Amino acid sequence: MSLAIDHPSGRARAARKHDESRACAPVVLRGRPLVGHLPELRADPLRFFTRIARDHGDAVELHFGFDKVLMLNNPAMIRHVLQDNRLNYEKSKFYDVMRAVLGNGIFLAEGDEWLSQRRTAARSFQGCQLRRMTAAMQDAVGDLQQRWSGLAARDAVIDLIPEMMRLTLDILMRTLFSLRLDDQYAEIFQALTVVLRDAERRIWSPFNPPRWLPTPRNREVRAALRVLDSFVFGMIEKRCAERAQAGEPARESEGDLLDLLLDNRNGRSDRQICDQFQSMILAGHETTANGLSWCCYLLSLHPESLRRLRSEVREVLQGRPAGFADLPALKYTRMVFDETLRLYPPLWTFSRVAVADDAFAGLELPAGTNVMLNMFAVHRRPALWDNPEGFDPSRFDPQRKNSQRFAYFPFSDGPRSCLGERFAILESMIALAGIVDRFDLQLLPGQNVEPEPMITLRPRGPLLMRLVPAPAA
Prior knowledge:
By secondary structure, the chain is α+β, with helices and mostly antiparallel strands. The chain has helices at 10-16, 38-43, 45-55, 75-84, 99-102, 111-122, 127-153, 160-177, 185-203, 216-246, 257-263, 270-301, 303-317, 331-343, 375-378, 421-438; strands at 27-29, 59-64, 67-72, 89-91, 157-159, 350-354, 358-360, 363-365, 370-373, 439-443, 451-453, 457-459, 464-469.
């Protein structure tokens, strides 16, 4: 999905005239002897990468211990890696720490295995299937509204992060796996938190204890993995039993991703099906919950944007739930959501490795070069955005179009862009409309809300909000 962005400043216009053919040797920053930039990275990775993109130009070579990474901050360079020469760039070794959770699921698979998994999953995200899923999304949001109504009546305080995790996991279970969420959501939320924090530590640490060592952290991670495995294997076993009892195929899949995964096993074991399932949970639950949490947080800080969004929701929907056909009319709601993902992209950075030698925009990349594409830093780069740290939904007004698509890529881009992008936007718009129409979420004073850069970009919790009824129209 192509999204319009606006860069009206003189600096941005100059950036658009960048001559891609001229020599552009990267700036080389070595950092400290032996450790390179690891101390700065471990202290505050978001601030570090934002400063690098701001101060050191389009391409910067960074050293982390024995590893070198080429950070690309120019939209044309990013387009080359993600689209123009995409077959030359695969997932880097930094993702290996996630294999303990995701195995060779779609998030980490390459080549024919990735293509096979993507083709299977894509059938659940077609437009006709999204329309069919809308009712289940509306029901999940309706259940949240009912649960919150009693809390709002007494001005209760909630932790928004697990609430959004519960909502998006409920939507995922209903739409893709035909299941209603039970009380396991809190256990799943905690298990994901443990695993993601451990993975992020391992990515940026030069020395990691082997997973088999009985350290306290390793024991905690193993316990979390058992929780996730038990959750997923339980659903697989239940579905297999239902299919066996009814005689396969038990029913038409009708977009049920679990049936599609089982129908397209191609010799895959239950462990491999579990890996695919857990990839979907991470990509389709954790990330969307983070986006909604950040959106509600930003609206609590910008009451004029909240009033405008609520006014649009009430004018367009007239009290009914948002649906698939309403999305084009909810223009400002979408602008708020896009601006939220600019400031706090749920997947905030990723990396690729060059398979063969490559040359573009004056750069020469030998095979084996690690390339970093950091959405958080690029989305806040002053050369590309006016007032980059400010919350300004109007920059995404469709009337203010600009062609620099790869300056904004919260769902990645190119052929390996997020498969569930349209699904995530649909559920987020339905959820956001349902929340602001009925409730005010007021940030409790005294909180230092900051992002926690794990594999995903979650608010460092808790995120305490007072829940009150929304003002009448």
